[in-house]
Amino acid sequence: MTDPETPMDAAVPTSERIESLIDRLTLEEKIDLIHGGIDPDGLATGYVPPVERLGIPALSMVDGPMGVRDVTATAFPASIALASAWDTDLAYEQGEALGREVLGAGHDVLLAPGFNIVRVPQCGRTFEYYSEDPHLSSRLATETVEGVQDAGAIATAKHYVANNQEQDRHAVSAEVSERALREIYLPAFEAAVEEADVGSVMAAYNQINGTYATEHEWLLSDVLKDEWDFDGYVVSDWWATTDGVAAANAGLDVDMPGVPLHEWHVEGSPVHDLIGTLPDSFPKGTLAKLAASPWLPEGANPNLFEESVFGESLREAVERGKVPETTIDGKVRRVFGQMERFGIFDDDQPDGALDAPEHHDLARRVAERGAVLLRNEEATLPLSEDLDSIAVIGPNAETAKIGGGGSSEVTPAASIGPLSGIRERVDGGTTVEFARGVERIEDPHDAEGGILDLGVSASDGPGLNDDGEVPEIGDAVAAARRVDVTVVVVQDDATESEDRSLWLPGDQDELVARVADVADRTVVVCNTGGPIRMPWAGDVEAIVETWYPGQEDGHVTASVLFGDVDPGGRLPVTFGRRIDDYPAATEERYPGVGLQAEYGEGVFVGYRHFDAENVKPEYPFGHGLSYTDFEYTDVSVKSGDSPEATVEVTVENVGEREGRDVVQVYVGPEDPATPRPPKELAAFESVALEAGGQTTVELEIESRAFAYYDEDDGAWTVPDGEYTIFVGRSARNVLAEASVTVSETTPLE
Ligand code: BGC
């Protein structure tokens, strides 16, 4: 019986059925419902087995942000590409499609989206996240969650919180102020809870101020559950929980995957297969540990090859009184609450659609909308239909850049690379030459979900040309000399579990430089997971960043290059000129010393730092060119209930073709007593306009945009005074400014 003396989690939905089930469950059964087990179909990333005795169905979870893992599924563009569209409706659409794919594959929960802020451009999972800006991240993450959940799948906001680097992710402590957490790292999670009622939150691997995320009572219970009224369940990242009792008492609800590494996903690597054939009496864990030891990351969970810390040991802790049984009931109630809400109890989930043709179209549309035209000298782009010849050059130009490595990997039924996309587009009307130029960049592939790989790594084969020879830059240079336009496709090789270099891998920089030396016109297409160094930026005519475009890569590249669509993308992250220009450029800040990363930049993350320190970026936050021109007129600011405001601006397409612009509104205090960023994104709107067309856009600025988090008061505060409203096309391209006076504000919630 539930202890009537212990108040239930008031925010958590329950029902007579849930309470009656909890009453009838044994302690062993309850414990089995809060950690994972083996999926008999072998397709779930995380699986809570059923309790058949009571008719409780299983709960099946699957990765991840770019599509469904481990089956043939639509490979959507990376989250950073979606973010580059700055379009909440599009984020909703992609979320809805992801949710349908999850249900179509027979799962209940999507282990995505990734909400972490791009604090350092080196983060290996930058491609899985949205932005360096909390407002942009919040708007897009919330809409994605709404889409996933409206489709009928439970979304998971991950990785809570400050999981901003892959290096040492299992152990590093983010030493971060409450102000920076509140203003930069928490808002997307907060919005997903409060606005989208996200069903699940994933606790990260790392520590925050010396405590593991899975055991962080202040973050899990005080902030997430009590302050924001989160009523779903908190799931651990895979093998992230080290201390079951501490985690259970702090507010973690479900430990995943709940099985030792060598028993999880038993197929796929020779070591796994070998261990699978051994009799149960064999010390499999010891063997697996031995086999994996060369690859074990620093700080890897010592329990990696053991049973779940939410298993037998937790049951004993309950019996010894170290964890109240009502606490376990609370966790089960949270899981059941979501299972009831999403129709899982009643087998009443909507139909899904795996690998649906309309999702392929959407994947293409999102990637086109997320393509950012960084540079376009002498109107080199769009390419003309009348070109005699094009050279497509690049080590991987004939294959689609589907995604990065790790748990977000998706296997599409078909994909198209830039070379084929361009050939298909010109349809024989233009000669298209191909040269790889330098050795192929191997795509990282980490079949075990990123924590480690028990000894195998798939490879895309040697970096040879079609004729079996090692490619020569000279061949590429010769091709570039012969043709009208040279398109160089470059890529990086970012992956979960490792951080990325800002330099392109291999000899790609040299390739671009040598080609640019001789080519008439050079266009560089970047398939990168985040910002890169571009030593050749000034020597090429055009640069397009298409990120990881997913299965439709070739179609997207061709339609952007030939102007079938206007590149609507704007940078959601700053591209700095030098590594030292970024805000966390000391070893203490990144990657940290002694497994402590000091977030000494505070709230000055991304463009907030570049603006405050007056450092010129290579390409600023919000930047992206169009094939047409826009003018902003009639900018006006109406103050609503102080400090809210509404900005109106008329946008006119004054060019000769249809196009898309993103109106950006930033707010900054004019004379702050407390250090504050000069401007912070407060609102944005993506608008499509015919040539000559115009529209008036209304953008709401909410009170939080004027506020900072006052640690002494433990509250959001809007100091009275003058604030500048900046309206522009990037953080560095402000077209209009207005001043508003804020006085006598009521305290913010
Ligand atoms: C990743 C998570 C992922 C999980 C399951 C972890 O390594 O950090 O994002 O959902 O694996 O694959």
Write up what this structure looks like:
This protein has 749 residues and is α/β, with parallel strands linked by helices. Helix content is 25%, strand content 19%. The strands form six sheets. It has a six-stranded mixed β-sheet with strand order 1-2-3-4-6-9. Strands 10-15-14-13-11-12 form a six-stranded mixed β-sheet, sandwiched between helices. Strands 8-7-5-16 form a four-stranded mixed β-sheet, with no helix packed on it. Strand 11, helix 15 (418-426) and strand 12 (431-435) form a beta-alpha-beta unit. Helix 4 packs parallel to helix 5 (134-150) and helix 16 runs parallel beside helix 17 (508-518). The longest helix is centred in the N-terminal third of the chain and has 17 residues, at 88-104. Bound molecules: beta-D-glucopyranose (BGC). Beta-D-glucopyranose binds at residues 45, 63-64, 111, 158, 237-238, 407, 449-451.
Low-confidence stretches: 1-7, 446-451, 453-463
Major beta sheet, strand line-up: 1-2-3-4-6-9
Number of domains: 4
Q: Total number of helical segments?
A: 19
| Helix-residue proportion | 25-40%
Set down the secondary structure blueprint.
Elements: H1 16-24, H2 27-32, E1 46-48, E2 59-62, H3 79-84, H4 88-104, E3 109-110, H5 134-150, E4 154-160, E5 173-175, H6 178-185, H7 187-194, E6 200-203, E7 207-208, E8 211-212, H8 217-227, E9 233-236, H9 244-250, H10 270-277, H11 284-292, H12 312-319, H13 325-341, H14 357-370, E10 372-376, E11 389-393, H15 418-426, E12 431-435, H16 473-482, E13 485-491, H17 508-518, E14 522-527, E15 542-545, H18 553-561, E16 596-598, H19 607-612, E17 630-639, E18 645-653, E19 659-669, E20 680-689, E21 694-701, E22 708-710, E23 715-717, E24 721-730, E25 733-742
Parallel strand pairs: 2-3, 3-4, 4-6, 5-7, 5-16, 6-9, 11-12, 11-13, 13-14, 14-15
Antiparallel strand pairs: 1-2, 7-8, 10-15, 17-18, 18-21, 19-20, 19-24, 22-23, 24-25
The protein binds beta-D-glucopyranose.
